[in-house]
Amino acid sequence: MGKxxxxxxxxxxxxxxxxxxxxxxAVVDSVDNVKKKYNLQMVRNIANSGANVALNALTxxxxxxxxxxxxxxxxGRYSYYFQRQxxxxxxxxxxxxxxxxxxxxxxxxxxxxxxxxxxxxxxAYFTNHEGNIWFWTGDxxxxxxxxxxxxxxxxxxxxxxxxxxxxxxxxxxxYREYPYSYTNPAFFGGTExxxxxxxxPTEIPEDLINASKDGGIYINKRYAxxxxxxxxxxxxxxxxxxxxxxxxxxxxxxxxxxxxVIYVHYKSKRPVVKVKGTVNGRVTVATRGSIKVTGDLVCAxxxxxxxxxxxxxxxxxxxxIIVVNNQHDQDRTIQAxxxxxxxxxxxxxxxxxxxxxxxxxxxxxxxxxLIQNSRGAVGLVGSAYSRKGYLKDYRWDPRLRVMIPPHFPxxxxxxxxxxxx
Length: 421
What we know:
about 40% strand; elongated
């Protein structure tokens, strides 16, 4: 009997000790798990903080390239670096990838952020200054429209895309109304006022110039004549005098053998480029001077009738883009995204029509986008017979949501696409 009791007591003691050991182990494991989770959360927080520091650096300078290595933070460290198309050909020319690495208590965690630098080509209409030019009945804008000042609206212009402005006319009215008639613009795409200022470049960006030298066409002459052909070629003549060149002076290039960038440079004076024709391919014509559109400039595969067309045209001038050779009651068609950077604010600056106030022309059919420092004049309002210049038929090319003319100038901001942590 006594022996049996001893065995029972021994069993109880062993069970108690086992339970206590298990409880202690559970406490230790619980502490270890909490510590491990804490360390994992800390290393992730440090990596995310590093990514935010990198994004702040890009906010200050969108072209920032300098990374950081092993910066102390919260008892750990972080590093980050930037990658663009030069470092990773899988990225597009507008994309930037930020990689941030966190280190804490022997652990490593990585965060990646993919951003894109939007192109000015995404706008149907963009100005730094509106000047004293009004939107009027018959004016129709079908894509995103923005100004860094405020709009001036008369009677009933129509906007199918979102309309934004950095400034407002006054506290009760975001745009200025025409004082001598009823004003009722139609905003079918919505509006947003007092948005951030969107800075325009004042000269052709270096990456576009470099692209013309590396796989494009770089021209160092005072005057250039560019004629696009529907077979995918372009004929170019260039010289330092403005007299029209003979046919023998033209050189023919196959656009498919280039990156699509044509840049005209002349150091001592602003060059003048004359362009027209039918583009089969993707092309951007740019110059530190002015561009004169001397005839219709269209895509071989018409994007108005075929939204899957892969032909696209960009025009970018550090000074003016001028529509010339205008004929009485005749239309002009330009299927291109047009950008001017002339700091002057006058009707005959930036994008404008030569002799806009001297004769009556037909419709100016612009299919693409119009980006300019200030509004240039294309016509003067009046009755059917008293008006001058062109009537505007501006239509946004919806392909510009995703398609960009080669190396077209970009905004000085970045937009986040994805964040992986």
